[in-house]
Amino acid sequence: MKRGSLPLIPSTDPKDVLNRSCTSLLALVTGLHNQSLSLEDIASSLFTLIPAISFWLCLFFEHIILPSRAPEFKCIDFHHAVVYILSWTTKPNTLEIMEPKLLRDYLPFLWFHPPPGCTKYNLEDSRSIFAAVYIVILSPEWMDILIRRLEEDSTVTANLIVQFIVDEFTHIPEESDTRLIYQSFLTVATPVLQFSLHSPPVHTALLKNKSVRWISRVLRFVTRPARFTDVTLHLAADCVSKCLFYLRKVIQDGHSYVYQLLGHDLLLYLLKVFRNLHTHPELVNEETKEAMNHVEDHTMNILQLIASHFAYASILKRSQKAISKIQRDRVDLFLGPTDPGLKRVCETWTKFVAVAFFPSDIPRSITDPFCGHGQCPRTSAGKFMVCSGCQFTLYCSRICQKEDWSSGDHRSLCTEIRQLRNDGGPLPMSFSDRRAVESLNSRYVEYYKQGSSEWNKLLDRYIVANGDPDPLWPLVLILHYRALLIEPEVGIESSQRCIKDPEIIAKAREGAGILVYWIIVDGQSFVKKAELVDL
C-alpha cells in the first residue's frame, strides 16, 4: 500500500479485494472514531495511516465511484463509506500528506454527485461532506483551488449549502446532541463566508437562495438558552463569529440588505447572542476568547454600518421599532458598563440608540412615508400599503396604486424590482426614501439660507480654501450623509467641480433655486445626486 500498488491477495476477483479493503478501512475509521481517544492519540494514529488510506480512497474513486460501478459491489455502500472515511481523515495536519487528487478532484466530485439514484445526500453524509469542505476551505494552500472547483456550478453549490441548513433545522427537534448541531452550523457558515469573500458567482447564487434569511435563522438558533460546555461554547462562539462576518459583508453590498436584515430581527438577535455567550465566563479558554472578541468586533461594526444608513427613512423607522421592542422587553439590560467584556459593545449600543432617536426637528420627520404615485393628491391619512408585485413601492391608498399602474409609471419599475429580488441583487433607493431625503435637503437649505450666519461660516471656509466664488458658477450646498449621525456633513462647493448637468446649472444662474449635491451611503458605495431646491 505504501508503494502505491495493489497488495498481493490470493483472490482473482478485484471486487473482492476492493470490498474487503473498503470494509476494513471503514471498520478501522469507525473504531477510531468510537474510541475515547485524546486528540493527540487520534492525530498520531491518523498521521501514520493517512498515506495508506489516501491510496485506497483513490482506488475506490478510480475503479468504483467515478465509473458508477457501485451497484456491482453488494457488500458495502461504497459512496457512504468513502464520504465517511474521507471526512474523518481530513484534518488540518493531514492535508499535506493526503493524495492531492483527493482534495483537488474527488472531494469536488462527491460535492456535486450524491450516490446513484439519489437526488441529494442524507443528513449524515451531508455532515461528512461539509466537515471535509470546512477543513479544506480554511487551508491557505487549498482554499482557492477548492473554491474554483465548487464555483464551476455556482447554482448547485448554493443550493447544496441552503439545503443542508434546511435539513439541519428539520432534524433539530429529534437531535439531542447540541454539539453536533453547533458543529454542523459552523461547517456550513464558514464556506458561506469564504464564498462571499472570494467567489462572487457563488455569493450571488447564495443571495438568490435567500442565504441572508437562513444565516439569520442560524444566528437565532444560537440565541436559544443552552447549557454550554467548554466545547459547545467555543463552537457556538466560532459559528456566531462566521455568521456575523457574513452578514456584515452582505450589508456592505447595499442598503437594501440592511432593511432586509432588520426585518429578520437582526438587532434583537445581536444582543441575545452576545448575552448568551457571556453567561458562562468560567468556560472561556483562549480559543473561545478569541472567537468572542471577533463576535464583539463584528457586532460593533454591524451597528455602525446600520447607523450610517439612517438617512434612509425606511431603515431608520425599522431600527426605531426594533429598539423600542428590545427596550420594552428589557433585552439590553445585561449591557452593564461595569463588565469589561461588554464595555465596548455597551458604548456602541448606547450611541446607536442615541443616534436613532436623534433629538433634532430637522431629521425627525423623515420617517413619515411618501406615496409612490408621482401625482398623489396627498389627501389620504390612512395606513400605507406596498405594491403586492414588487413589495417595494409604498402607496397611501388603493386609488393611488391603481392610478400609478394604469399610467404605466410603475410597471417597468415593478418588473425591474421583481427581477432583482429573484436574482438576489441589491435594490435601488425607493421612491419614499428618496423623497424623504429630498425633504430633508429642503429643510437644510431653508435652515442655512435663513440662518445667514451659518451660511456665512460655510462661505468663509470656502473662500479661505478656494478664493472668491466665480459668479458664472453658482455655489452648491454639499450634504454628505455618511457620518454616524443623521445630520449630514455640510459644505459649499463650486458647481463647476461637482455638477455635470448644464440645464440645472442654467436654472440656478437664473435664480430658480439653490443647487444641492447630496451623497448618501449605500453599502460600500454611495448614491450621489444633484438637485435644485426652490427658494
From TrEMBL:
GO terms for molecular function: zinc ion binding. Residues 373-414 form the MYND-type domain. The keyword Ion transport does not apply. InterPro entries: Znf_MYND. Keywords: Metal-binding, Zinc, Zinc-finger. The keyword Transcription does not apply. This is MYND-type domain-containing protein. It comes from Armillaria borealis. The lineage of its organism: Eukaryota, Fungi, Dikarya, Basidiomycota, Agaricomycotina.
